[in-house]
Every structure is written in structure tokens, then in C-alpha cells.
Amino acid sequence: GLGLAICRKIVESAKGNISFTSEVNKGTIFEIQIPTIEK
Questions:
Q1: CB 3.0 to 4.6 Å from 28: which of 15, 22, 23, 34, for a disulfide?
Q2: Positive or negative CA dihedral for 6, 37, 21, 27?
Q3: How far is CA 8 from CA 23, 26, 28, 38, in A?
Q4: pLDDT value of position 32
Q5: What's the pTM?
Q6: Ordered per-residue pLDDT tens for the chain, 39 residues
Q7: Domain annotation covers residue 29
Q8: Residue 30's pLDDT is what?
């Protein structure tokens, strides 16, 4: 839906990655990876 599209744009603008796995009758798991910044 729209929420996922917004999340994808935010993650990509942060140079991150979003992926998912899905199983019938079990659901879907989304994984978001965003790099950290050291100060």
C-alpha cells in the first residue's frame, strides 16, 4: 500500500535497503537495513 511506498522512499534516501519474505497462511516479514553514521 501507500505506507510501504513511503517507507521505501525513506529507506532508499538513507542509502538503505528494504526486503521481505512471505509464507502462505503465515504472513510477511519486512526487513529494513539502514547504515549507521559514526561521529
A1: 22
A2: negative
A3: 21, 23, 16, 23
A4: 95
A5: 0.66
A6: 789 899 999 999 999 999 999 999 999 999 999 999 888
A7: yes
A8: 93
pLDDT for 1: 74
- The residues near 39 (Cβ < 8 Å, ≥ 6 apart) are none
Range of the domain at 16: 2-33
In whole angstroms, how far apart are CA 29 and each of 5, 26, 37?
A: 16, 10, 26
The neighbour count for residue 8, using CB atoms within 10 Å, is 14
Quick check: helix, strand or coil at residue 9? helix
H or E stretch at 8:
helix 2-13
Inside any domain, residue 39 = no
Q: What is the count of structural domains for the chain?
A: 1
